[in-house]
Amino acid sequence: MSLNMKDLCLISTAIACVVNEESVIRTKKCKKRKWVKTWLRKRNKYTHVKLLKELEPDDYRNYMRMPEEVYMELLDLVSPYIEKNDTVMRQSISPHERLSSTLRWLATGRSLQDLKYSAVISPQALGKIIPETCKAICTVLWKEFAKFPTTKNEWEKIANGFEEKWNFPNCLGPVDDKHISIVRPPNSGSYYYNYKGFFSIVLMAIVNANYEFILVDVGTNGRVSDGGVLENTDFFKKLVDKSLNIPDSKEIGPKKSKLPFVFVGDEAFSLRENFMKPYNVKELDYSKKIFNYRLSRARNVVEIVFGILAARFRLLHTQINMNETTIELAVLAFCILHNYLRRKCGESYTISSSTQENVNNTDGVNCTANFLTNLQRGHNRHANQKAKEVRESFLKYFNEEGKVPWQDDRI
Length: 411
Description:
Layout: H1 5-29, H2 43-46, H3 48-54, H4 57-64, H5 68-82, H6 95-108, H7 112-119, H8 123-145, H9 152-166, E1 171-181, E2 200-207, E3 213-221, H10 226-231, H11 234-240, E4 250-252, E5 257-259, E6 262-264, E7 275-276, H12 286-312, H13 324-345, E8 373-374, H14 385-399
Parallel strand pairs: 1-6, 6-7
Antiparallel strand pairs: 1-2, 1-8, 2-3, 4-5
Helix pairs in contact: 5-6, 5-8, 6-8, 7-8, 8-13, 12-14
């Protein structure tokens, strides 16, 4: 079959038309998108930073979870770490907007898609701003407001607080763990799936008698038990090899009862010479019930702290939908903020008078709600004879010279 010149011209013209039509279609499909939505470009007009200027003191405190003067002090501290330079294309988001948006996320637990409307910041930008700001909060506040005790004098100061407020001598702090609910990380399988049927990471904490954290460990997957979390920490390793610089045993009371310095926990932990736990309910007699009660008063302080924390930072009421690193930074940030606000705001920071256990209230107040779930109890471990002797010495002290007037009424 042969084609003349006229046929070839017709064919080439048809091909050119088809190519040109496809090019037009592609151009329409690849229409250039805006790099930012129009209303987001008007951030200075709609931002909640302007609202803050109009709020009354009580409303400001409720909105930011702290008084204005405390917030401005915190802003001055973190600004050098979160301030960005303007570019030719756009104006940078100010440290004020970055910090206030992060605190609102911690305080409410709202999704980034929801938060963008009040912050007037895109979810993509918030996804970068929040971890950066949480890290800055940890950096500037850590040494002053979350310093772990390293000297004998620091440990003795904590112990004196528990003896004065909670009638437990030589107590270095209660230890406890809680599940923090998260959205399952991609490709993690059941690694974070806990015995309660949801995905979580574990927050382990030790607190002092003034409701402040002295140690926070976060990030362990939710499958482990209480004892397993503790034993995976650097704190436990130092506790075992006696490198925490804990003071030697101290004589207490008129009879000079010699008692060691100890941490306290619930029945899930193992009994050690420097770590006390309650007696098993199966072996209780009257004197052991007294010991369990006195130990529970000191241990309940950490439960109160978790309750205050969850009331102030309602992110804990949600399934946190962030990557693991951001979640850990957020948890560390609000734990440090808790200490910061306790010292700056004093008693006004606590959620209500019900969190302050009266010296005559022997049952204590458990403020921890069901959104902070206890860990699964691990297997009981056999304690050595020395650990049992230490517990017996505390039992004897609580039932004799260290007896408090109201303890018999509660047993």
